[in-house]
């Protein structure tokens, strides 16, 4: 077997592992799992590290299991939290589980067969019939309260962060631990992986496997570091909130822009973590970038690779086209190919005004549109001066004082883009 741990280390994807983990992965094809809690009906880029870890596992000849926590999601993981999460109802959880399954299936082909074919499970399927008494007898008696109290996720809550911890949350590590045992028993799953904040929960699982699985039972743990930006701030958020992996929550254009706009320091780190480019290729890109950082070679390659991975090559091309509209030499035809949502995102923050659609259909003279209809320019005189200076464009095409704007100029049947000079934009919406 190729050395997966060595690969994860140079990529910055390795934080810690239990003794024997690397040796197990070198010895034979190993089944391993990562859990995803259904706190929303999709996943954002904060989950990308774990998704990529499962793909690396598959690429190295091992078998990945993606576990969606329909049962654990009813409780809420206390790891890294100072207060208890609000409990979700079953209807919301079912919707979230379905959404997460849909996302994960884009990266791992759950329909394939073979020795290391990936598959997905939902821990609600085996927990729903488990009575409280049976769980207390079969699982609860295997782990001492002292052992559970020693976990960082528990200690921090008992030491004054937040309002303490409910019994519900206290049982979370036992339920997650039982997941590991169930997968061990039914699928010979020997390894659980996750973020470094999951170490306590994962090792509870390895302990349950050891205590419930018989004298030869063995289980392993491997964690990834928590990703931060160079300035120490949390990775995965923009000013507008989470960057989601579904285009209906975060447009492909905005997703692409997030990666293009990373700092040089972060881009050097992220291209190892979030792409599957080999070491030589990455080192060459880093060197080229350092020679000419203004070209942003690293950021563009990072954005290209991860946008194709999450969305598609076709969607990447559209995102690049949308980016060029704002920063390149786009034409009126390029503008008209944008969908309405992407158009508004490209020109987010640009001043806007509304005009009656009937007026546009009848035709509006350009001076009137620039001043009294929109207020883009302060007076008819200023509008005429700007037109005589040849500094006014409609949908990126220069216009004169004799020009009229009509329905043929509408982008997506509703927008007109006015521009004075190179950077002074104004959006007209026909309603």
Explain what you see.
- The protein has helices spanning 4-11, 21-27, 48-59, 90-104, 124-127, 132-138, 145-149, 152-158, 167-170, 172-187, 199-212, 252-260, 264-273, 279-291, 297-310, 313-327, 332-336, 340-346, 357-362, 366-370, 380-388, and strands spanning 16-17, 31-36, 63-68, 119-122, 189-195, 220-224, 237-238, 241-242, 352-355, 364-365, 392-394, 397-398, 404-405, 415-420, 424-430.
- The model has no long low-confidence stretch (mean pLDDT 87).
- It starts with a helix and ends with a strand.
- Helix 4 links the parallel strand 3 and strand 4.
- The protein is α/β, with parallel strands linked by helices and 431 residues long.
């Amino acid at each position: 077997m190729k050395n997966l741990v060595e690969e994860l280390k140079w990529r910055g994807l390795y934080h810690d592992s239990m003794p024997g983990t690397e040796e197990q992965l070198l010895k034979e094809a190993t089944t391993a799992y990562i859990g995803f809690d259904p706190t929303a009906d999709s996943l954002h880029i904060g989950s990308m590290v774990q998704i990529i870890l499962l793909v690396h596992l598959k690429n190295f000849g091992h078998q990945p299991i993606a576990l969606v926590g329909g049962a654990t999601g009813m409780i809420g993981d206390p790891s890294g939290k100072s207060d208890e999460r609000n409990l979700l109802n079953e209807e919301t959880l079912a919707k979230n589980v379905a959404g997460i399954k849909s996302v994960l299936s884009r990266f791992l082909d759950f329909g394939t067969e073979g020795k290391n074919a990936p598959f997905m499970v939902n821990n609600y399927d085996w927990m729903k019939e488990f009575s409280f008494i049976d769980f207390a007898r079969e699982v609860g008696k295997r782990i001492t309260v002292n052992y559970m109290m020693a976990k960082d996720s528990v200690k921090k809550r008992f030491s004054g962060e937040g309002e303490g911890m409910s019994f519900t949350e206290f049982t979370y590590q036992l339920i997650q631990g039982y997941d590991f045992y169930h997968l061990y028993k039914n699928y010979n799953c020997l390894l659980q992986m996750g973020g470094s904040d999951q170490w306590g929960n994962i090792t509870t699982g390895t302990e349950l496997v050891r205590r419930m699985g018989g004298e030869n039972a063995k289980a392993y743990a491997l964690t990834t570091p928590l990703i931060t930006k160079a300035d120490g701030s949390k990775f995965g958020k923009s000013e507008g909130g989470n960057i989601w992996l579904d285009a209906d929550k975060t447009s492909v254009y905005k997703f692409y822009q997030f990666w293009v706009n990373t700092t040089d320091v972060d881009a050097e780190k992220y291209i190892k973590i979030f792409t599957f480019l080999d070491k030589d290729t990455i080192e060459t890109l880093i060197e080229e970038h350092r020679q000419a950082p203004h070209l942003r070679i690293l950021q563009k390659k990072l954005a290209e690779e991860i946008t194709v991975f999450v969305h598609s090559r076709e969607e990447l091309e559209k995102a690049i086209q949308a980016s060029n509209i704002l920063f390149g030499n786009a034409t009126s035809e390029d503008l008209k190919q944008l969908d309405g949502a992407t158009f508004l995102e490209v020109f987010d923050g640009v001043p806007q005004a509304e005009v009656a659609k009937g007026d546009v259909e009848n035709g509006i003279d350009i001076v009137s549109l620039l001043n009294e209809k929109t207020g883009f320019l302060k007076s008819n005189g200023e509008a005429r001066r700007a037109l005589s200076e040849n500094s006014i464009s409609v949908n990126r095409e220069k216009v004169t004082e004799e020009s009229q704007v009509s329905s043929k100029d509408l982008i997506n049947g509703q927008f007109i883009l006015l521009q004075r000079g190179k950077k002074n934009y104004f959006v007209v919406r026909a309603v």
